[in-house]
Amino acid sequence: MAVRSAPSPIVIAHRGASGERPEHTLLSYRLAIEQGADFIEPDLVPTKDGVLVARHENEISGTTDVANHAEFVARKTTKTIDGAAVTGWFTEDFTLAELKTLRARERLPQLRPGNTRFDGQAEIPTLDEIIALAKQASRETGRTIGIYPETKHPGYFASIGLPLEARLVAKLHAAGWDRADAPVFIQSFEVANLKALNSMTRVPLIQLMSASGRPADGAEPSYAAMATPEGLKRVAAYATGIGPERTMIVPPSGAATSLVADAHAVGLKVHPWTFRAENFFLLPAYRSGGAPGDHGRLAEEIAYFIGLGIDGFFSDYPYIGVSARDASASPAHRK
């Protein structure tokens, strides 16, 4: 069967289908693929023995059962990560074999209580396992399933002797993914490591941006400065696109900004994050009248952003994203 390219805009499964399964598990990634996602997103952190694994943060008490393991009680500690004190258990203090004894759990049980029924069913996956899943699913479905890894806290990990970049590039090279058209995007909130990656690999790079703050490596004064026309020109020198927080494109109140057009003007793709169905996360115009965990009108919110010209988007609910994307592309919608 011929492998088909992803339609536009691409649907990126944010930590997998994390609205319906514990995030960053093979359960979540498999469901996202079944729901039609074009890319699955692993946030990458290293183990003590240098293996890249998928966790939203290197502190894992909120996403695993590590606190229930008596043998690891003494590993609890406080560290300074990107200038903030964090207390808990950290992947870099565990070997891969030790991490594999843990089991994943739902990170947002108050908003997603249904996901807790999958607690304890999945291990922490390695990057190798995620690449293998994407390749197997591509063969089975005839669609190209890509990966969209984020390098988490790259400056911090470099400072403790566990740099991420060479490890990631080596895995991508081994997978045959060292081309500009490879089914891979590498993303980061920092700048220096993306510039380093630009000289190490030909795969597309995405500069993440938040609605507040600045890169942890101090390379730019603020994300707001990076989102200006002049700032975007600087980003275009080393990256293929930007991944802005979606409120940088559409504020909670007020009209859409010019960010999409400004980015396109300098040749950057725009992949905003993150589209979630719960009222707690939706823009006010798309919320239902229910509780924070009730679902509002996510498909409508996504459709609005598609109308603004985005090139892809991150969603915890890939099937809603795929449905909204396909509906936006239909002739009836264009009339």
From TrEMBL:
<feature type="domain" description="GP-PDE">
    <location>
        <begin position="9"/>
        <end position="325"/>
    </location>
</feature>
<dbReference type="GO" id="GO:0006071">
    <property type="term" value="P:glycerol metabolic process"/>
</dbReference>
<keyword id="KW-0732">Signal</keyword>
<dbReference type="InterPro" id="IPR017946">
    <property type="entry name" value="PLC-like_Pdiesterase_TIM-brl"/>
</dbReference>
<keyword id="KW-0319">Glycerol metabolism</keyword>
<dbReference type="Pfam" id="PF03009">
    <property type="entry name" value="GDPD"/>
</dbReference>
<dbReference type="GO" id="GO:0008889">
    <property type="term" value="F:glycerophosphodiester phosphodiesterase activity"/>
</dbReference>
<comment type="similarity">
    <text>Belongs to the glycerophosphoryl diester phosphodiesterase family.</text>
</comment>
<dbReference type="GO" id="GO:0006629">
    <property type="term" value="P:lipid metabolic process"/>
</dbReference>
<dbReference type="InterPro" id="IPR030395">
    <property type="entry name" value="GP_PDE_dom"/>
</dbReference>
<keyword id="KW-0378">Hydrolase</keyword>
<protein>
    <recommendedName>
        <fullName>glycerophosphodiester phosphodiesterase</fullName>
        <ecNumber>3.1.4.46</ecNumber>
    </recommendedName>
</protein>
<dbReference type="GO" id="GO:0042597">
    <property type="term" value="C:periplasmic space"/>
</dbReference>
